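User: My collaborator sent over this chain with a note saying "see what the structure looks like." That's all I know about it. Can you take a look?
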Amino acid sequence: MDNKPSVKEPEVKNGRLLRWSKGILTAAGAILLYLLISLLVSFLYALICSMRGVTDPGEVRELVNNNASLLNMVVNVLVIMLLIAFSFTKRGKPTERLRIHTINPAKVIGFILFGICLNLFVSLAFSFIPFPDSLVEAQNEAYEAYYSNNILMALISVGVATGIAEELLFRSAVISPLKSAFGKIPALILSALVFCLFHVSLIAKIYSFILGLVLGLFFLKYDSVIPTIIIHISFNCTAFVTGILDNARREFLIIICVVSALMLARMFIWLYVRYPGFSDVLFDRGGRLRPVDPAGQILYDRIRELREREEEIERKELEELNEAWDDLHRKKKRHTVQEEIAEKRKEEPKVPENRTPHFSEQDPEDHQEKQEDEKDLSADRSDSKEGEDTHDETV
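Assistant: Without extra context I'll predict from the sequence alone. Here is the result:
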């Protein structure tokens, strides 16, 4: 008999509610921190303006627009500093809590190109959608303050600082607790919704929701904020260049949109679908990549031993391990296909071997051919019987 104590249903519900509340409160605390810092910076700037004798709301608004990049820079730097500071107050390494894990250096260029192509595709695809003029004007007015002043300051503030701060906030500090509470898919959707709500115009909310889903996918796949920071920075910096395409011909824009979509699909397969690859395991210094099957674990250990050796690695040895890696993944795909075929066969209704199928289970053409064969057989039997009777009479 099994003497293990049974877990009562109220205790399971209480544990689930505790996990949900902890995840929601942790994510909400990080978002509240960002809002408080933004309000504090705005209040201090308004106080400075009043001390200088500027009290007219129109003049204050004009000063805010002229210094929008600087104020955004201050907010983002404070958010980054406070998130790093809070990570030191918890148990474990700060890099582990913020998910700042190293990645394969060979994929850095791929992430940069992915962010550029993603911005081109989304911007051009949205340009073909007939949005109302009021929404387009609101979108231009919301970001005109960043692009009309010092471009270098705007590039550093909006392109770099915003990318780092928002990834540490919406990916590291929001997705991680929500994933522990609700799972990957709800955490991905909730974080993308929160991320889009922090953007001003409706058009910006739509494309930021798409961007949030893509960045969340890469964050959950790599368990690191480094890929999402690179994609986000390249996405934001490309926005300063896409303005030159406003007066381009429609055919040219369609070609760029299609090419960027094809490049996106190709790089998504390389960066996301085929992760982890052989080089990813080779550069995995923290040992975070854990295969499920024992054969994969043995190969992982061999690759790590090869990396940790101090002497120079021979090219032949690398090629042998790379071939073994490819063979392992081919076997996995073949095994998966065989499992799918076996499951489909199980779902098919089985017909007993000794049972003749009913007419409704037979093909109509096969049934007609069978009837014709039976008629021919009966005619042959009658002919042979008449021949026997004639022979008897003759005898």
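A starting point for your reply to your collaborator: Confidence is low (pLDDT under 50) at residues 390-395.
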